[in-house]
Amino acid sequence: MSATPAAAAVESETNGRVQQHRRYLMCRPEHFTVSYSINPWMEPSRPTDTNLALQQWQSLYDTYTELGHEIELIDPVEGLPDMVYTANGGFVIDGVAYGPKFRFRERADEAPAFIDWFAASGFEVAEPVEVNEGEGDFLLVGNTILAGTGFRSTGDSHREVGEVFSREVVSLTLTDPRFYHLDTAIAVLDPVEGPGGVEKANIAYLPNAFDERSQAILRERYPDAIRVSDADGAVFGLNSASDGKNVIISPRAKGFEAQLRERGYTPVLVDLSELLLGGGGIKCCTLELRGGTR
Ligand SMILES: CN(C)C(=N)NCCC[C@H](N)C(=O)O
What we know:
45% of the residues are buried. By secondary structure, the protein is α/β, with parallel strands linked by helices. Strands 4-3-19 form a three-stranded mixed β-sheet, with helices on one face. Helices cover 26% and strands 21% of the residues. It has helices at 5-8, 50-66, 105-108, 110-120, 155-165, 212-221, 230-234, 254-262, 273-276, and strands spanning 13-14, 17-18, 23-26, 70-73, 91-93, 96-98, 124-126, 138-141, 144-149, 169-173, 186-188, 192-194, 197-200, 203-205, 226-227, 241-242, 246-249, 266-269, 287-288. The protein is built from nine helices and 19 strands. The model is unreliable at 1-8 (pLDDT under 50).
């Protein structure tokens, strides 16, 4: 595998969109259920189907591997049904893994499991002091870290993540409880870095998920961003994964699918309806591993 993102870019180019190689951490939802409620999507009285969750998760896994991406797996732990949402298990850049510290007691025991996995897999671990939920609230856009707060990760964790990675951090405040993590309200489309630094970096976002100050920041920084409708946001359309060309999205996000096509991206539809019962979608089940030993 190529060491630099630029060298990892796939040669073929369609409509100017270049596919980049990705390495992701995922966790099979063997113990998936909804036994508690820590977000508005979770209703413990509603039955869940673990086999269906496994099938849907497998289709996401297969989609990634068919696109040529590399998947690492962390063992699921009984009693930790939310561990399938690996995006909350850390934030990784250049082989350094900033560990999570979960907001709710129900998820607290996931933190040592993820931190142990990073350490055993050759990553340098930065232990957190502040409450943060990893790539659920931290998104790397070019060289900048967009950091969410309001429901889960604290403002202090924004300072901490900036110190760990020595990068600019832009704090954004989420205001709608349905969109409690930043990756429910922003999708990073073009995280492309080349030898000369960032070559392009664009996002899609749901304006109404943010307070006024954050909306103004997003408008100014990303004038070409795709702004998605409330309807597409409400089906977790933005909770998606892009390799710069293919964007894996929910089949329910029809408007976003059309917007992506207009911009030359290739939407790839994967239905994770069962995992949505836990309040997570495609991006939540996907933690990007940048750098490291491979
Ligand atoms: C964008 N989202 C939502 C995520 N990255 N993670 C999903 C976490 C779901 C879990 N039940 C929770 O409420 O923490």
